[in-house]
Q: What sequence folds into this?
């Protein structure tokens, strides 16, 4: 299964329209970082009684889970150092025996350091003064300022989801994991091979290999459905609950619902990552998280501490607002006779692996 990069079509674009998106990174076929693709809304766009394909609202796909998998840690500076705790620091026994008069045994913190540097990410939109004046709060038209704000927020969230769960993302790149914490499923052992696949055994092996207890498992709806229909999973559940057979209809309905988390006895909570992105090659929407199952560990409070071991963390600059997310607007007088307002939102962040031997990844889970 493959994921695609964010495209102009995914932003709700159509040829012949004007859009206002400032590119953060180089985008093949669109432009370079810093380039702006302009757009505008017209008075008629806010007074009709139906949703327009010319209006940059688009669809807000459910299922974004990047914030949960890589919790946000607010920082005051654009770059800094974070600590990665080794196995000696956390798991090596030391002598703690002492007495009333003896010298107290000593230990040193055994850590290594890595650096982070946040990257600015922002989008903006222009609202002509006349367009805003034609907005009628009492009608079924859209408030252009609110709509563009929501659209920008969705696009930023989609970008973040791709960086964490997409093809080449932080948690889906094999090289980001310790060799003992990753595995690729061979032919005939895929989870949608009802008799040959063994999801329970594969997950147990990754949990056992993790240096710290696994708190969460992440998979897309297709993988979740294959898991629920697996004979090995049914036998495992039957061993727990007795001879009552698991309903295939219930299994299918549960696994195909986006954002429908579920629990199987003996496993950490399983989270369904239902977010999708446009694959420009096929024109189809595909799951951002492909046929990879990700296991992570995120103890309570670990995101806000530099002393706790966890799988990954998001370093985000606090910024002027103090909450890591900035939204502002300013007049833009050079656009049209009456000018208008330019709205901009964004954040500065980077996602980092804190411990690549905590949690794990299972690749090529389904055929």
A:
């Amino acid at each position: 299964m493959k994921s695609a990069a964010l495209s102009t079509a995914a932003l709700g674009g159509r040829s012949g329209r004007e859009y206002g998106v400032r590119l953060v990174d180089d985008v093949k076929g669109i432009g370079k970082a810093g380039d702006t693709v302009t757009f505008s809304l017209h008075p008629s766009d806010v007074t009709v009684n139906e949703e327009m394909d010319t209006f940059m609202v688009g669809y807000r796909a459910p299922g974004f889970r990047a914030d949960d998998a890589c919790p946000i840690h607010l920082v005051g500076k654009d770059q800094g150092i974070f600590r990665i705790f080794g196995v000696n620091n956390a798991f090596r026994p030391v002598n703690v025996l002492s007495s009333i008069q003896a010298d107290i045994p000593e230990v040193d913190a055994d850590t290594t350091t890595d650096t982070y540097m946040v990257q600015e990410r922002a989008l903006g939109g222009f609202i002509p003064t006349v367009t805003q004046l034609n907005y009628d709060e009492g009608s079924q038209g859209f408030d252009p300022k609110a709509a563009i704000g929501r659209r920008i927020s969705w696009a930023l969230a989609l970008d973040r989801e791709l960086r964490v769960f997409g093809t080449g993302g932080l948690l889906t790149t094999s090289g980001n994991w310790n060799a003992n914490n990753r595995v690729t499923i061979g032919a005939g052992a895929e989870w949608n091979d009802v008799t040959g696949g063994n999801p329970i055994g594969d997950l147990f092996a990754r949990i056992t290999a993790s240096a710290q207890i696994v708190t969460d498992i992440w998979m897309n709806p297709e993988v979740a459905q294959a898991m629920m229909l697996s004979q090995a999973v049914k036998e495992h559940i039957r061993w727990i609950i007795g001879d009552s057979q698991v309903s295939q209809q219930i299994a299918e309905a549960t696994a195909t619902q986006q954002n429908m988390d579920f629990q199987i006895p003996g496993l950490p909570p399983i989270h369904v990552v239902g977010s999708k992105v446009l694959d420009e090659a096929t024109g189809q929407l595909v799951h951002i998280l492909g046929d990879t199952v990700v296991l992570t560990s995120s103890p309570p409070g670990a995101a806000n501490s530099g002393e706790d071991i966890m799988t990954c963390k998001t370093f985000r600059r606090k910024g002027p607002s103090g909450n890591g997310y900035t939204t502002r607007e300013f007049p833009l007088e050079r656009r049209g006779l009456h000018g208008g307002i330019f709205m901009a939102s964004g954040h500065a962040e980077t996602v980092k692996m804190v411990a690549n031997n905590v949690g794990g990844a299972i690749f090529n889970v389904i055929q």
